[in-house]
Design brief:
Structural class: mainly beta
Number of helices: 1
Largest sheet: 9 strands, antiparallel
Strand content: over 45%
Number of strands: 9
Oligomer: single chain
Order of helices and strands: EEEEEEHEEE
Shape: globular
C-alpha cells in the first residue's frame, strides 16, 4: 500500500470572486487601445467577501469598503489612512478606477475583470491565492 501524500495547496477556486486575493496586473484604455502593466501586482490587491465587504492594498495604503453586484458591479473603497506613496505608485489611479467600476466578474480564464462605464477602462486581475480568513 503506497503512502498517502498530502495534496499540494492550490489557488483558490475561480468559480467565485470571493475569498481570493486578486492582484491588479493591467488596465486597458479601450478608446486609445493603450494598456498599462502594473509593475508590482502584489501591491495592488482586492479581496471580496461573501457578506459584501472588501479589503485590499493600493501601493502603500490599505483600504476597506463594500461592493454590490446588484444591477452591475459597484465598489466603495475607503483608505484606512491615506498616505502619499509617491514615486511610481499607482495608488491614486487604482482608487479612481475602483470608484468608477460599473461591471465585472470572472473573465473565464481564471482571472477577474472590472470595467468602467461603457467598458472604457478594463482592469484585469490574476488570482493571487486564497485570502486569509
Amino acid at each position: 500500500c503506497a503512502p498517502v501524500t498530502p495534496a499540494a495547496p492550490t489557488a483558490a477556486s475561480t468559480t467565485t470572486i470571493t475569498d481570493v486575493v486578486w492582484q491588479w496586473v493591467r488596465v486597458t484604455n479601450r478608446p486609445t487601445g493603450e494598456t498599462t502593466a502594473v509593475a508590482d501586482p502584489q501591491s495592488y490587491t482586492i479581496i471580496f467577501r461573501a457578506d459584501g465587504a472588501l479589503s485590499g492594498q493600493a501601493g502603500c495604503n490599505t483600504f476597506t469598503g463594500t461592493y454590490s453586484q446588484a444591477g452591475g458591479f459597484f465598489i466603495t473603497a475607503q483608505p484606512d489612512v491615506m498616505a502619499a506613496c509617491g514615486g511610481d505608485s499607482l495608488d491614486q489611479q487604482y482608487f479612481a478606477l475602483l470608484d468608477a467600476i460599473v461591471a465585472g466578474g470572472l473573465d473565464g480564464a481564471g482571472g477577474l475583470a472590472l470595467e468602467t462605464a461603457g467598458g472604457e477602462q478594463r482592469m484585469e486581475f490574476v488570482n493571487g491565492g486564497a485570502a486569509p480568513p
